[in-house]
Structure to design on (417 residues):
C-alpha cells in the first residue's frame, strides 16, 4: 500500500478500515542468501538498500525483540553533519543528503525537521575549535555559520548568557541539522524492505554463528538453525556479544546513555541546542515534550536503564544553561546501550571469516548515520568493496593504529568518546 494525501482522505471517509499491516510476519526459511543480525535502524536500512540498490531479495533480518525496541527507538533523534575529520565528514555529509530525501524515498513520513542545530561555546579556545570545525564543514559542502553572542541571542533568547561560570561566547550554527521521528525511521525502512521481499523475523535471537573451514554457513537461533551464504552483524550495543559467537573480540565497550522527556509544552525551543561546558543538549518534540540528554553513565553495562548521579548531573547542566527549564516536569527517562570504540568512530568492514561482515561502534551518534550506514553496508555486502564514503571505517585500524579517526582527540579510552 502506498501512502498519499488522497489515501489518507479516502481512508478517513471510510472509517480507516482499509489500512494493511506495514510488514508481514513470516516464518523463517531454512536458508537465505543474506542474514542480518539485528533489526535496529542500521540492520533495517541495510536490508532496504540491499534490495533497492542491489536487487537482492532473499534476505532475512533476525531481531531478538521487536522492530524499534533497541536504540533506534531510544535516541534523542538528532541528525547533523558537523564532523571535523576526513573519514567521518564525507560519510555524515552523505547521510544528511539521504535524510533530506528519505520521506519521499520510503513513501513514509519520517518527520525530518531541519530546525537547525546550535553548538554553544564559552571560551576563546572553544571558539577557535568551533571555527575550525565550521570551516571543515563548509569545505565538505555542508553548512555552518559562526555566531557571536548577539547572533545566538536572536535564535535562543531564553538562555542564561551571562552565567557567572559559563558565559556564552557564541555558537556554531548548522542550519540543515535537526531531528526526525525515530520510530518512523525504523518503521519506514522496515516497510520498505518488506515490500521488496525481505523477511523481517522478530522474536528470533541469534545464539550462535556457524563457521566451517573459515567460511560462514549460517546461524543458530531461538527459532532453529538457518543457513546463509553471507551473515552480517549489526547489533549495536550487543555487537561484542554477537561477534564473540564467531570467535571475535571486538574493540568495543558497551555503555549506558540516558535520555529524558518533559510533559508536553507549547512551542518554546525551536532548534537543537547543545551546551559547550556541560553534558546537556535539548530539542522539543512535535508532541511538545522537551527531549534532552547528557553524557554516558561511565560504567560498562548491558542494562537499558541509567543511574541517579547522571540524572542529577544532566539536570544541573540544564538549569545552568536554561533556567526556565526548572518549571517543566520530567515525565520519563530511559537508557540505551552504546557500543563505544576507542576512537569514537564506527566500523563497517569484512572480517577474517569469509562471508561474515561487521557493522558496529556507533557510540552515541548512530541515529543520524542510519541512512548512510545502511547504504554503505549494503554496498560492502553486495560487492565486497567498501563504499566510497566509508573507506575509513576499517576494523584493523585498532590493531595497526593506522587510520584512527579520533574526532574528539580524547585518546583511546572508550567512554570518553
Ligand atoms: C539515550 C540515547 C540518545 C541517543 N541520541 C542520539 C542522537 O540524538 N543522535 C544520534 O545520531 N544518535 C543517538 N543515539 C545513538 C543511536 O541511537 C545508536 O547509535 C543507533 O540507534 C544504533 O544503531 P541501531 O539503530 O541499529 O541499534 P538498535 O536499535 O539497538 O539495533 C540493534 C538490534 O540488534 C538486536 N540484537 C542484539 N543482539 C541480537 C541477537 N543476538 N540476535 C538478534 N538480534 C539481536 C537488538 O535487539 C536491537 O534491536 C542515542 C542513543 C541513546 C541510547
Amino acid at each position: 500500500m502506498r501512502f498519499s494525501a488522497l489515501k489518507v482522505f479516502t481512508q478517513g471517509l471510510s472509517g480507516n478500515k482499509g489500512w494493511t499491516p506495514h510488514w508481514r510476519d513470516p516464518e523463517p526459511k531454512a536458508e537465505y542468501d543474506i542474514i542480518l543480525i539485528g533489526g535496529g535502524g542500521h540492520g533495517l536500512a541495510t536490508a532496504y538498500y540491499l534490495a533497492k540498490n542491489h536487487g537482492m531479495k532473499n534476505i532475512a533480518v533476525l531481531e531478538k525483540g521487536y522492530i524499534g525496541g533497541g536504540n533506534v527507538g531510544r535516541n534523542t533523534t538528532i541528525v547533523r553533519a558537523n564532523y571535523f575529520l576526513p573519514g567521518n565528514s564525507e560519510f555524515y555529509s552523505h547521510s544528511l543528503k539521504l535524510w533530506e530525501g528519505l520521506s519521499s524515498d520510503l513513501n513514509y513520513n519520517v518527520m525530518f525537521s531541519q530546525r537547525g542545530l546550535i553548538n554553544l561555546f564559552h571560551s576563546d579556545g572553544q571558539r577557535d575549535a568551533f571555527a575550525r570545525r565550521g570551516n571543515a564543514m563548509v569545505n565538505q559542502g555542508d553548512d555552518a555559520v559562526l555566531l557571536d553572542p548577539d547572533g545566538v541571542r536572536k535564535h535562543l533568547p531564553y538562555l542564561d548568557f551571562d552565567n557567572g561560570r559559563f558565559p556564552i561566547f557564541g555558537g556554531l550554527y548548522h542550519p540543515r541539522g535537526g531531528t526526525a521521528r525515530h520510530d518512523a525511521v525504523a518503521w519506514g525502512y522496515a516497510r520498505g524492505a518488506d515490500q521488496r521481499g525481505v523477511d523481517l523475523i522478530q522474536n528470533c535471537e541469534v545464539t550462535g554463528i556457524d563457521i566451517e573451514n573459515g567460511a560462514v554457513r549460517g546461524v543458530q537461533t531461538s527459532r532453529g538453525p538457518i543457513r546463509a551464504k553471507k551473515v552480517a552483524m549489526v547489533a549495536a550495543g550487543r555487537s561484542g556479544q554477537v561477534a564473540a559467537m564467531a570467535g571475535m573480540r571486538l574493540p568495543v565497550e558497551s555503555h549506558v546513555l540516558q535520555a529524558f522527556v518533559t510533559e508536553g509544552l507549547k512551542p518554546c525551543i525551536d532548534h537543537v541546542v547543545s551546551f559547550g561546558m556541560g553534558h546537556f543538549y535539548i530539542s522539543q518534540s512535535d508532541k511538545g515534550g522537551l527531549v534532552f540528554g547528557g553524557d554516558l553513565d561511565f560504567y560498562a553495562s548491558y542494562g537499558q536503564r541509567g543511574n541517579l548521579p547522571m540524572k542529577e548531573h544532566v539536570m544541573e547542566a540544564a538549569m545552568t544553561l536554561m533556567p526556565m527549564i526548572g518549571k517543566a516536569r520530567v515525565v520519563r527517562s530511559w537508557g540505551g546501550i552504546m557500543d563505544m570504540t576507542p576512537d569514537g568512530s564506527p566500523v563497517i568492514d569484512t572480517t577474517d571469516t569469509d562471508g561474515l561482515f561487521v557493522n558496529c561502534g556507533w557510540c552515541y551518534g548512530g541515529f543520524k548515520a542510519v541512512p548512510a550506514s545502511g547504504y554503505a553496508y549494503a554496498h560492502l555486502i553486495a560487492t565486497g568493496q567498501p563504499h566510497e564514503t566509508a573507506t575509513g571505517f576499517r576494523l584493523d585500524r585498532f590493531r595497526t593504529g593506522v587510520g584512527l579517526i579520533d574526532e574528539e582527540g580524547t585518546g583511546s579510552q572508550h567512554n570518553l568518546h
